């Protein structure tokens, strides 16, 4: 259970200080620069009145036009031209398979620390950040905000996670798409243990909402490379099913299946313009993130 994970486990001030100067940028939109640096072509809640749109659950009630409601009996929200932030929607996989921890920390712990670091980065540049936890469905959701204590609220959501269940990544992505009504960046953190075609359908739904999608694919090194010898007992983290096999005898075939799966994922992401970053839990998270953001900044 996530009750064994505490907020302090996700907060490394030294790590965060090394990330402070790295801009979290969105490739397809310009909201991702430092606050006030560029004018957004989209609309938010700040400078000049632009138009009305229908109310969506979660919208700030302060921006409802109550006079218009009195006339038409329908809720409309005022929109404004904005020099404003993007919305960053972090989606963290909490399914049972994320509990795999052969290298000292679980994929969930690694992914949670990654989510905290990305939230910290985005909030430092005044972007609005939220988090969605999922397994076979959306389990918890905190809508994006740039308020001062948003990081603490995100950490609370992560550390108060309920019991895990089996994966249904595609279904969860479809649900999450309906919880992300405003254009922004979707940051997916998962081991992606599901059918590739189902995953891609879920990603397409997120892209249909005009979000940029960045995928952090988190694996355990033993899952990735099977660096073992002798008889090994394999346990399905989600079903509990166990089998014992001679590692040397199955390694070649095992790695072929893994590489085929990774190739299919990589090609699916490439075809859809999704950045996929493969990470293993034995990699220093700060180096992996810094390398990624530096390469991303140079590419823009």
SSE arrangement:
Elements: H1 7-10, H2 13-19, E1 43-44, E2 48-54, H3 66-72, E3 76-81, E4 87-93, H4 107-124, E5 128-134, E6 138-145, H5 150-159, H6 169-178, E7 184-190, H7 196-208, E8 212-219, H8 221-225, E9 231-235, E10 242-246, H9 247-271, E11 275-280, H10 285-298
Parallel strand pairs: 4-5, 4-7, 7-8, 8-11
Antiparallel strand pairs: 1-3, 2-3, 5-6, 9-10
Helix pairs in contact: 4-5, 6-7
Offer a quick outline of the entry.
By secondary structure, the protein is an alpha/beta fold. It is built from ten helices and eleven strands.
Features:
single chain; 300 residues; alpha/beta; six-stranded mixed sheet; three-stranded antiparallel sheet; 10 helices; 38% helix; elongated
Rg from Cα: 21 Å
- Average pLDDT level: 78
Q: What coarse outline follows from CA principal-axis ratios?
A: elongated
Multimeric state: single chain
- Helical content stands at 25-40%
Spans of at least 5 consecutive residues with low confidence: 21-49
N→C terminal distance: 40 Å
Number of strand segments: 11
Number of helices: 10
Name the structural class. Answer: alpha/beta
**Largest β sheet strand count, sense and barrel closure:** 6 strands, mixed
Q: SSE order, as H and E?
A: HHEEHEEHEEHHEHEHEEHEH
Q: Report the β-strand fraction as a percent range.
A: 15-25%
The strands making up the biggest β-sheet line up spatially as: 6-5-4-7-8-11
How does this structure look, described?
- By secondary structure, this protein is of the alpha/beta class.
- The chain has 10 helices and 11 strands.
- The protein has a 6-stranded mixed β-sheet, sandwiched between helices. Strands 1-3-2 form a 3-stranded antiparallel β-sheet.
- Helix 4 runs antiparallel to helix 5 (150-159) and helix 6 (169-178) runs parallel beside helix 7.
- It is elongated.
- Mean pLDDT is 78; it is low at 21-49.
